[in-house]
């Protein structure tokens, strides 16, 4: 199932080029009281939400996807975890270009570890990326994004995929420079998740998925998840050995080679096999 959030927090099921409004299924979620849960309520109760959607039996207004504004499919992640330099060819690119990538970026992921992006940076495919520091170089990074479905800690790789709710395309937008990653990658709109969530049962095995990112007519990043250094199960094992993962936590699995600058006026098209494609505009802001 492909689930999206759109317009004024509507819930939709994506069927081809159309979206069916299944917001009525949100009625199965409990009313939250302070203090609010530190996870995403919809993702935590995804099995119940899916049952409620099935019970609607095809009811719900259908609209063209092109007419709705897509929001992040996860509304309230507790954290956005991200993997640096997790593709072999991207490490070579980093080492070859020290002027752009500071020296420690070439370290392998088990030495570098993971980092967090601010939740306030998260947007969906229907919102533009806002370039705020236009005197700095800002780059695109396409990544397979994994959405955690159940609370887990110290999960072994062989059991890790059972804790995944689904997958989406992630754009880890980045200002280049010497500051901490958590600062350079956390500007408002610098984490794009979309265009929708493909549930784990529909998506299947996350290995050997093609990633493609173009800016205008130019192909920038073309890669395959089989070249990940730490694959999805290994990343979940690694991340959950440091912090508990909660429903709705997002893991950006790292970007392949071909990162490059974006400037206002650009349009990014990003696609991953098994998810789909999204167009994201870049504007000054
Ligand atoms: Mn990245």
Structural summary, described in words:
By secondary structure, the chain is α+β, with helices and mostly antiparallel strands. The protein has two domains: 2-71, SH3 type barrels, CATH 2.30.30; 80-284, Fumarylacetoacetate hydrolase, domain 2 (Alpha-Beta Complex). Helix content is 17%, strand content 33%. The protein has helices spanning 41-44, 46-56, 88-96, 109-112, 157-160, 181-184, 200-203, 232-240, and strands at residues 2-6, 10-15, 18-21, 62-64, 70-71, 80-82, 115-117, 122-123, 129-131, 138-140, 142-148, 164-172, 174-175, 191-199, 210-215, 218-224, 250-252, 260-261, 267-272, 276-284. The strands form three sheets. Strands 1, 2, 3, 4, 5, 6, 7, 8, 11, 12, 14 and 17 form a twelve-stranded mixed beta sheet that branches. A five-stranded mixed beta sheet has the order 9-20-19-15-16, with no helix packed on it. The chain has a three-stranded antiparallel beta sheet with strand order 13-10-18, with no helix packed on it. The structure holds manganese (II) ion. Residues 82, 141, 143, 172, 252, 254-255 line the site of manganese (II) ion.
Largest sheet: 12 strands, mixed
- CATH architecture assignment name of the largest domain: Alpha-Beta Complex
CATH T-level fold name of the largest domain = Fumarylacetoacetate hydrolase, domain 2
Q: List cofactors, ions and other ligands.
A: manganese (II) ion
Rg (CA only): 18 Å
Count every beta strand, where a strand is a DSSP E run of 2 or more residues: 20
Q: Catalogue the unreliable spans.
A: none
Order of helices and strands: EEEHHEEEHHEEEEEHEEHEHEEHEEEE
**Tally of helical segments:** 8
3D shape: globular
Could you tell me the strand content as a percent range? 25-35%
The proportion of residues forming helix, as a percent range, comes to 10-25%
């Amino acid at each position: 199932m492909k689930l999206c959030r759109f317009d004024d927090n509507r819930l939709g099921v994506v069927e081809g080029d159309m979206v069916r409004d299944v917001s009525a299924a949100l009625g199965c979620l409990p009313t939250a009281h302070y203090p609010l849960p530190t996870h995403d309520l919809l993702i935590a109760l995804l099995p119940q939400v899916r049952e409620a959607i099935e019970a609607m039996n095809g009811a719900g207004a259908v609209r063209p996807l092109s007419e709705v504004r897509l929001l992040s499919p996860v509304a309230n992640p507790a954290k956005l975890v991200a993997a640096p330099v997790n593709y072999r060819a991207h490490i070579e690119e980093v080492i070859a270009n020290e002027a752009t990538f500071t020296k420690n970026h070439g370290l392998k992921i088990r030495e570098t570890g993971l980092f967090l992006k601010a939740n306030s940076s998260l947007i969906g495919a229907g919102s533009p990326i806002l370039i705020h520091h236009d005197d700095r170089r800002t780059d695109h990074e396409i990544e397979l994004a994994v959405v955690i479905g159940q609370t887990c800690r110290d999960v072994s790789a062989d059991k890790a995929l059972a804790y995944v709710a689904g997958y989406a395309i992630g754009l880890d937008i980045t200002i280049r420079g010497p500051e901490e990653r958590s600062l350079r990658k956390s500007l408002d709109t610098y984490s794009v998740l979309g265009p929708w969530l493909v549930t784990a049962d529909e998506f299947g095995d996350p290995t050997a998925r093609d990633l493609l990112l173009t800016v205008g007519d130019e192909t920038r990043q073309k890669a395959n998840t089989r070249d990940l250094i730490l694959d999805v199960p290994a990343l979940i094992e690694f991340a959950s050995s440091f912090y508990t993962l909660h429903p709705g936590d997002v893991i950006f699995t790292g970007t392949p080679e071909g990162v490059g600058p974006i400037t206002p006026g650009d349009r990014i098209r990003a696609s991953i096999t098994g998810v789909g494609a999204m167009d994201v505009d870049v504007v000054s802001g």
